[in-house]
Amino acid sequence: MSRLKVALIGAGFIGSIHAARWKMVEEAEIITVVDILEERARKLAGKYRIKSFYRDFREALKNEDIDIVDVCTPTYTHKEVSLECIEQGKHVIVEKPIALKLKDADEMIEASRKNNVKFMVAHCLRFWPEYVVVKRIVDSGELGEPRVIRACRQSPFPDWAPWHNDLKMGGGVFIDMSIHDVDFLRWSIGDVVEVYARGGVLKRKKATAYDYVHTILRFSNGAIGYVEGSWIMPKSFPFTTYLEIVGTKGVLKVDNHTTASVKVFTEDSASDYTFIYKDAYYEELKQFAKSVINNKEPPISGIEARKSLEVALAAVKSIKDGEPVKLPLKGDIFD
Question: What pTM was estimated for this model as a whole?
């Protein structure tokens, strides 16, 4: 079988990461790269010996050989770019979040169904090795029933993407960054039924996008989650993540600065779970390619990604309204 032909749209930070990983996927090859900054597309194409590059993704789509489109463009463009690709019969993997509006997500999901193409959202945390181990431990019952969860994600503001200053272009820190934790917790703990959030624009006064948010999540099984997202850290501060799950039988914790292991504490013992390192970006792209080849549902469907977006949007609404927000969310907040 010939290799799948991939068009990469977006040659910025995440697009460069994806380009390197696609070169590792045996089942596929990038045949074109697109970026509105033509020189950036040219450089990425040259670095990875990609056959062609374009400034306009519509020009690239004229190539009928393209099987998969990898959308690595800014969040506010996800709907427009993904829909056009889907409607031309291309399988699409799009960066998280799926979109900024639930109605846009619905339109993307419906279009993929109508056009009979695979559609996946790149929530990479589900493929991160230590989080894969966490999911396995939670599912095994070793911790008992999860009761309290704490997750934080902290970094300086992403100056490489100034559109993140605008709430209606990027959604703010919780929609862009904390959605990683939201999606993982939904996957491993269960559905969220209520969100109560506090936060705002605490550091970048000219911005409209919230740069700090903390939330209390109430899950359908009664568990309580605390999720914090921060872009207010100084430029010298290293990207930092922390996850702790307290269950009825034990406690689990993992962070990205100590030795790579998942630590579990029960009444009788303390254990470190180590793992074989696997590149999460490679794993997600390879799994999407396999879903296309085998005609299977991708690991993270549009419907799954929509649910995570709904929780993140509810957090923004809660900050605006100053009160808890029950799910399902009624309407969009960016209209």
Answer: 0.95
164 with 209: CB under 8 angstroms?
Answer: yes
Q: What is the DSSP string of 202-246?
A: -S-TT--S-SEEEEEEEETTS-EEEEEEE--S-TTSPPEEEEEEE
For residue 170, what pLDDT is reported?
97
The three-state secondary structure class of 199 is strand
DSSP state of 12: S
- The radius of gyration of the chain's CA atoms, rounded to the nearest angstrom, is 20
212-219/224-230 β-pairing: antiparallel
Query: How, if at all, do strands 250-255 and 262-266 pair?
Result: antiparallel
The answer to whether the CB of 27 falls within 8 A of the CB of 290 is yes
- Short-list 79, 55, 56, 70, CA closest to 5: 70
Mean pLDDT of the chain: 96
Burial class from Cβ neighbours inside 10 Å (0-12, 13-18, 19+) for residue 226 reads middle
pLDDT for the residue numbered 259: 63
Residues 301-323 have a mean pLDDT of: 98
* Residues facing residue 28 across a β-bridge: 4
Residue ranges of domains in the chain, CATH in brackets? 4-123+281-300 (3.40.50.720), 126-280+310-326 (3.30.360.10)
